[in-house]
Amino acid sequence: MNERRTETLVVTLVTVTNLLIAFFISGVVIWALGEDPWFALKTLLYGAFGYDEGLGYTLYYTTNFIFTGLAFAIGFHCGLFNIGAEGQAYIGGLGVGLICLWLEDWSLWLVFPLAVLTSIILGGIWGAIPGYFKAKRGSHEVVTTIMFNFIASVIMVNILSHVLRPPKEMSPESREFAEGVWIPQMHEIFDWFGINITQTPLNGTFFFALICLVLVWRFIWYTRWGYEIRTVGTNDTAAVYAGISVSRNIILAMVVCGGLAGFVGINEIMGSSHRIMLNFQAGIGFTGIAVSLIGRNHPLGILLAALLFGILYQGGAELSFEVQAIDRHLVVLIQGLVILFAGALENLFRPQIEYFVKQLAPQ
After folding, report:
1. Does a structural domain hold residue 330?
2. For the chain: N or C, fewer Cβ within 10 A?
3. CA-CA distance, 363 to 153, in Å (whole number)?
4. CA 180 to CA 219: how far, in whole Å?
5. What would the DSSP string read from start to end of 198-232?
């Protein structure tokens, strides 16, 4: 067994072990509350996969987590800790909504690429500014991106309350877009092929998210820009000696982070709510950090981790509805345990697993 395959096996076993421990402790907590952990597990899985509506919501949440997970992973490969996906998604989504309001009489085939481009530009700008502060002024990206999350929130509140809110309406949100610029929802897509499924917020953006996974994989590992970003993240001193501009790649990475986070607006605004709303990102950006770390900042791992959190979000909602002793706070506890063991304590059992794998490997 070569070193690369050994490392892949170790990483896989470490992740699976940490997840099993997190779920075991969650089961102990549920048992301590007087409920059956196996019933809770079956209820959670049924809520996420057991019927088409539950599966639709699971994949809908997964779509958002893919975007924000990728948005964090790009920065992480460059040695950055991007906490600003919330604000980047917010501003990128604002651009998506403005395009839909402005061009709602146009064809979706024209509006969609323009909305994607606008979300890249606005989300990228919102990521580029902290990137510039980091590259040129040495400001820590954790501090600046958090600050920009709050600035984005203030901007959205003011725009929705005083500019886009329709007259005589109390709710701080824009009017609904024309149906012509709505991304088809999954039940409509299946209906084209004569298949009937339950209506959910899941829409065609899910396929766009899968394309983004492939594009990010190609960008990071098969382009010169991706190589430079990884080199800067691994050793910025060596990057300078190799003639690579550290500041340029920091700014580039943050631009790409912001653009990817902005795609949340495609799923939420064009595909689901069909209007600009306050807090449409609802913590998705912060969850993306855990998704990326659990997925080892690799697109395939991010896909699996995003699906895991989609299961926890949808299955957890079903669980809190079916089991009286379990409320949404306990569901958050389960999510927190997954993040704790698969993220913060990811290497807790790594030495033992490495020893076990080496013992099994042929000499």
Report:
1. no
2. C
3. 58
4. 33
5. ---S-BTHHHHHHHHHHHHHHHHHHSHHHHHHHHH
pLDDT for res 36: 84
At 362 the pLDDT is: 60
Q: Is 113 helix (H, G, I), strand (E, B) or coil?
A: helix
State the DSSP H helix or E strand holding residue 328, giving kind and residue range, or none if neither.
helix 328-339
Q: What is the mean pLDDT of residues 149-159?
A: 93
Residue 160 domain-assigned?
Answer: yes
How far apart (Å, rounded) are the C-alpha atoms in residues 343 and 309? 13
pLDDT value at residue 245:
93
Say if 14 falls within a structural domain.
Answer: no
Domain membership flag for residue 20: no
Q: Which tokens hold the place of 24?
A: 């075991």
For residue 139, give its domain range: 36-322
**259 neighbors 93 (Cβ within 8 angstroms):** no
* Confidence check: pLDDT of 358 > 90: no
Indicate whether 363 pLDDT > 60.
no
Which tokens go with 259? 């653009």
CB-CB contact of 127 with 261 (8 Å): yes
Task: Give me the number of domains the chain comprises.
Answer: 1
Mean pLDDT, residues 124-147 taken together: 94
Residue 294 has pLDDT above 90, yes or no: no
